[in-house]
């Protein structure tokens, strides 16, 4: 079902993706789709969680080369940005759904955040984050999603997005437990 939703949202804006078509493409009854995903928001937050897990798997297979600390966080964010920009309509669907979801109603939205924060902290080599580390990563993630949305909406270019992400890392991660070595 997630693969079918991803395929449809790769070719169509979120508003044009219909649950009936997702069920048809996934070869399941519409009732089955709604049993697992009561709304399109639930569905695309789950797609985003799966995408975050794919990003983590890719990083485990091929971690950022030659970078440590906050530079590693920057490298992860740039890779995630480039990956998501390959399928802009899908990225928009996931981000819109996650941003509009109440975590009390769509529990996967909290998992998306927690797993993405864990990816960034792991990349930086932070195994026991301080309150400052957690706050910095939370704020950086929120800023990154805004930068990504601006890039998806053609408000900024990819090089501008990457420069903004670099600036955000430099500004927000200054008090992080692990810093750049350069």
From TrEMBL:
Alphabetized Pfam families for the sequence: TetR_C_20, TetR_N
Source organism of this protein record: Gordonia desulfuricans
GO molecular function, one term: DNA-binding transcription factor activity
Residue ranges of DNA binding: 18-37
Entries under InterPro entries matching the protein: Homeodomain-like_sf, HTH-type_TetR-like_transc_reg, HTH_TetR, KstR_C
Origin: domain of life: Bacteria
The name this protein goes by in its record: TetR/AcrR family transcriptional regulator
SUPFAM superfamilies named in the record: Homeodomain-like
Keywords: DNA-binding
Domain HTH tetR-type: residue ranges: 1-55
Keyword Cell division annotated: no
